[in-house]
C-alpha cells in the first residue's frame, strides 16, 4: 500500500530536491502510479503537463512518434527561463539537437552517426575502453585505500570515452566536464553553479565556440572520429547548418557521460548496500551483462523527457488534447510493479532487468545505449577483479536536478588485491 497523493504533488514532481533524495522520489511516484498514473500537473513555476508514470503508458507514448512529438518541449524549464529563451532566440528550444527533432529531420540526422554507435563500431572500441578502464582502476589504486568514487573515478571514465568517440584531445577534458555539468546540473549548487538557465546558456555558448574550432580543423584534417563526420556532414546534398552541427556535438558530448557516470556510481552503491548481490557477482562474473542492465534500471539517470500531443488522443484512460505535453517519468516506469517483480529489490540476476526503459524507447531510443553498456561492463569487470572489500566511508549525496542526476559524492574505502 502506498501513501495517498500529497496535496502539493505537482510541485514535488518538479522540485529538484525530490531528485536529490531517491526515497522521496520513489514515495511520490509510487503514489502516483497507484492513485493517478497519468496525472495532470500544474506546478507553480512551470507550464502544466501530464506526468506519465507507468511503464506501459510511457512505452505507448514513445512508440507513437507520429502523434507524440519531441518539438517543442523536451525537458523541464521554468516559465521564466522559457520566456528568457524565447526573447533571446525566438524559440523555447534550448538547442536543435536530435532530442528536439521529429521526422523527417530526426531520421536524417540520426542516420549520420547511427553506424558509429551501432554494435559493430562499439565492439571495435572494446580494446581502447578496456585500456581506459585499467587506467581508471589504477587511479583508484594510486589514491590508496579510499576515494570519492563519484567525483574522482566515475565522472572521469565515461567522459574520456566520449571524448575519444568525438575526437576531443585529452587536455580539453576538464573544460568539457565543467561545461557539460553546467548544462545538465544547472539547478544544483555543488555541480552546476546553481543559477539555473543563465549558467546553462553560458555553458552552451562556450561549447559552440569550442566546437566551431574543432569543425574547422576536421575539414582540413579529417580523422576517424564523430567530429569529422559532423564537420563534413550533408543532408540531401547540403552541408548541415552550424546550429544543428553544434547541437549534435553538444548532445553527444553531454549526454554521453553524466548519464553513464551516474549509472556507474549508483551501481557501485547498490552493490555496497546489497553485499549478497556483490558476492553473487564476484562469484559469477558471467552475470555482469545482466547486472549492468540492473544498475541502469536501478539508477535511471535520465529522470524524464517530454512529448507533445499532435492530435487529441487517450493515454492510460485520460483524454489528452492536441498541444498538451507529457512528461515520461522513467525512474517511475522502472519501478512499476506491473512489470518488475519486487521492483524495489536490487538483484544482479533479475530476469526482467532488460525490460527497463532507462534508455527511453522507440525512434529516440538512446543513441549511445550500446556504448554505455559496454563501458559499464568493462569497468566493473576490471574493478571487481582488482579491488576487494569495498565499503562506504561517509554519506553518499545526490545531485539535486530534475532532468539528469545521480550521485555527486560516494566516499568509499577498499583494499587492493595483491
Ligand atoms: C546509462 C547511460 C545513459 C542513459 C541512461 C541514457 C538515457 C537516454 C534517454 C532516456 C534518452 C531519450 C530516449 C527517448 O526519448 O526515448 C537518450 C537519448 C540519447 N542519448 Fe543517451 N543515455 C545514456 C548514455 C548515452 C551515451 C554514452 C551516449 C553517447 C553518445 C548517449 C547519447 C544519446 C543521444 C545522442 C540521444 C538522443 C537520441 C535521439 O533523440 O534520437 N547516451 N539517452
Lay out the secondary structure.
Layout: H1 9-14, H2 16-19, H3 22-35, E1 38-41, E2 49-52, H4 55-63, E3 68-69, H5 79-89, H6 105-113, H7 119-124, H8 126-142, E4 146-148, H9 149-154, H10 156-166, H11 173-184, H12 196-220, H13 226-231, E5 234-235, E6 238-239, H14 242-255, H15 258-273, H16 275-283, H17 288-299, E7 305-309, E8 313-315, E9 318-320, E10 325-328, H18 330-333, H19 369-386, E11 387-392, E12 397-398, E13 407-409, E14 411-416
Parallel strand pairs: 2-10
Antiparallel strand pairs: 1-2, 3-7, 4-14, 5-6, 7-10, 8-9, 11-14, 12-13
This protein binds protoporphyrin IX containing FE.
Protoporphyrin IX containing FE binds next to helix 14, helix 15 and helix 19.
Q: What structural class should be given to the helix and strand makeup?
A: alpha+beta
Largest sheet: 5 strands, mixed
- Radius of gyration over all CA atoms, rounded: 21 Å
Oligomer: single chain
Strand fraction: 5-15%
Number of strands: 14
Strand ordering within the main sheet: 1-2-10-7-3
Uncertain segments of ≥5 residues (pLDDT<50)? none
CATH architecture: Orthogonal Bundle
Helix content: 40-55%
Number of domains in the coordinates?
Answer: 1
Chemical compounds bound to the protein? protoporphyrin IX containing FE
The named CATH superfamily = Cytochrome P450
Number of helices: 19
* Distance N to C terminus: 49 Å
Pfam family, one: p450
GO molecular function: cholest-4-en-3-one 26-monooxygenase activity; heme binding; iron ion binding; steroid hydroxylase activity
Keywords: Heme, Iron, Metal-binding, Monooxygenase, Oxidoreductase
InterPro entries: Cyt_P450 (IPR001128), Cyt_P450_B (IPR002397), Cyt_P450_CS (IPR017972), Cyt_P450_sf (IPR036396)
Amino acid at each position: 500500500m502506498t501513501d495517498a497523493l500529497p496535496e502539493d504533488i505537482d510541485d514535488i514532481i518538479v522540485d529538484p530536491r525530490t531528485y536529490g533524495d531517491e526515497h522521496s522520489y520513489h514515495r511520490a511516484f509510487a503514489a502516483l502510479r497507484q492513485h493517478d498514473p497519468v496525472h495532470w500537473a500544474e506546478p507553480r513555476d512551470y507550464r502544466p503537463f501530464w506526468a506519465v508514470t507507468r511503464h506501459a503508458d510511457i512505452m505507448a507514448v514513445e512508440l507513437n512518434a507520429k502523434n507524440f512529438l519531441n518539438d517543442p518541449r523536451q525537458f523541464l524549464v521554468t516559465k521564466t527561463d522559457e520566456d528568457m529563451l524565447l526573447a533571446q532566440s525566438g524559440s523555447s528550444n534550448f538547442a536543435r539537437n536530435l532530442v528536439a527533432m521529429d521526422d523527417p529531420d530526426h531520421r536524417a540526422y540520426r542516420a549520420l552517426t547511427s553506424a558509429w554507435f551501432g554494435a559493430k563500431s562499439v565492439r571495435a572500441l572494446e580494446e581502447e575502453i578496456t585500456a581506459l578502464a585499467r587506467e581508471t582502476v589504477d587511479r583508484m589504486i594510486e589514491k590508496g585505500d579510499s576515494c570519492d568514487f563519484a567525483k574522482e573515478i566515475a565522472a572521469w571514465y565515461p567522459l574520456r570515452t566520449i571524448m575519444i568517440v568525438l575526437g576531443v584531445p585529452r587536455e580539453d577534458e576538464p573544460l568539457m566536464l565543467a561545461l557539460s555539468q553546467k548544462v545538465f546540473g544547472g539547478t544544483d549548487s555543488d555541480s552546476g553553479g546553481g543559477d539555473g538557465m543563465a549558467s546553462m546558456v553560458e555553458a552552451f555558448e562556450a561549447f559552440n565556440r569550442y566546437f566551431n574550432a574543432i569543425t574547422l580543423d576536421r575539414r582540413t584534417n579529417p580523422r576517424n572520429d564523430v567530429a569529422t563526420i559532423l564537420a563534413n556532414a550533408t543532408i540531401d546534398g547540403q552541408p548541415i547548418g552550424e546550429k544543428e552541427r553544434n547541437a549534435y556535438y553538444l548532445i553527444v558530448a553531454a549526454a554521453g557521460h553524466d548519464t553513464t557516470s551516474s549509472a556507474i556510481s549508483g551501481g557501485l552503491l547498490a552493490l555496497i548496500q546489497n553485499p549478497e548481490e556483490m558476492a553473487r557477482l564476484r562469484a559469477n562474473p558471467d552475470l555482469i551483462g545482466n547486472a549492468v542492465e540492473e544498475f541502469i534500471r536501478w539508477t535511471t539517470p535520465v529522470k524524464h523527457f517530454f512529448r507533445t500531443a499532435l492530435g487529441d488522443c487517450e493515454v492510460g484512460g485520460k483524454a489528452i488534447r492536441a498541444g498538451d505535453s507529457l512528461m515520461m517519468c522513467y525512474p517511475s516506469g522502472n519501478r512499476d510493479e506491473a512489470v518488475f517483480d519486487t521492483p524495489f529489490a536490487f538483484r544482479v540476476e533479475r530476469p526482467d532487468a532488460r525490460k527497463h526503459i532507462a534508455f527511453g524507447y522507440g525512434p529516440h531510443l538512446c543513441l549511445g545505449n550500446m556504448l554505455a553498456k559496454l563501458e559499464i561492463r568493462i569497468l566493473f569487470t576490471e574493478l571487481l577483479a582488482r579491488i576487494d572489500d569495498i565499503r562506504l566511508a561517509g554519506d553518499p549525496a545526490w545531485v539535486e536536478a530534475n532532468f539528469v542526476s545521480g550521485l555527486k559524492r560516494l566516499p568509499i574505502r577498499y583494499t587492493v588485491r595483491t
